[in-house]
Write a structure and sequence with these properties.
mainly alpha; about 170 residues; globular; 10 helices
Length: about 170
């Protein structure tokens, strides 16, 4: 996976944390951010596996957060004064990340698929794939399947189809 995906990873992580804020406190924020970043990084690795994919992303742009904001009822002005980062949000990546956050078994499966393809950009994804009590308490909204469902539903079929295609190619 290309390091040129850092703006998309940062924007996706920031969007998830703004839409589904962690519990109060610095530790909760750090644990919530770690989980969101792992999910977005893993989703990016699956969606943009090659340099060419990354170059096309930079040429065409990721699409922005407008549809996600509308879907979750998030207002731009309430989150911060600088909304330029929102243009780097990739709806599909955020949707896939929501799927991974809501379903640790799917996160493990996705991580296995990405690593089998020869990449491991997210590193140790224990916080994502095997969340402990601290992770769940730190980010109750970010890990709540019912709350994530509207975002996860957007592109879950494509994620599952992609995983099936990758798994059949790996075998």
């Amino acid at each position: 996976m290309s390091t040129d995906l850092s703006p998309v990873i940062a924007a996706g992580t920031r969007w998830l944390l703004a839409a589904y804020p962690p519990a109060p406190g610095a530790l909760s924020h750090a644990l919530g951010e770690a989980q969101a970043r792992q999910a977005v990084t893993l989703a990016c690795a699956l969606r943009y596996p090659s340099e060419l994919d990354t170059q096309l992303l930079h040429l065409l742009g990721p699409g922005g957060s407008d549809r996600l904001d509308w879907l979750t009822g998030t207002e731009h002005g309430n989150l911060d004064g600088d909304g330029a980062w929102r243009t780097w949000v990739d709806e599909t990546v955020v949707s896939w990340a929501a799927c991974l956050l809501a379903d640790p078994a799917l996160a493990r499966r996705t991580h296995d698929t990405v690593t089998a393809a020869g990449s491991d950009p997210a590193g140790d994804v224990t916080r994502l794939a095997r969340p402990g009590e601290h992770e769940l308490q730190a980010a109750p909204l970010l890990r709540h399947p019912d709350l994530l469902e509207p975002v996860a539903t957007l592109h879950r079929p494509q994620l599952l189809e992609h995983l099936e295609g990758e798994n059949s190619a790996v075998r």
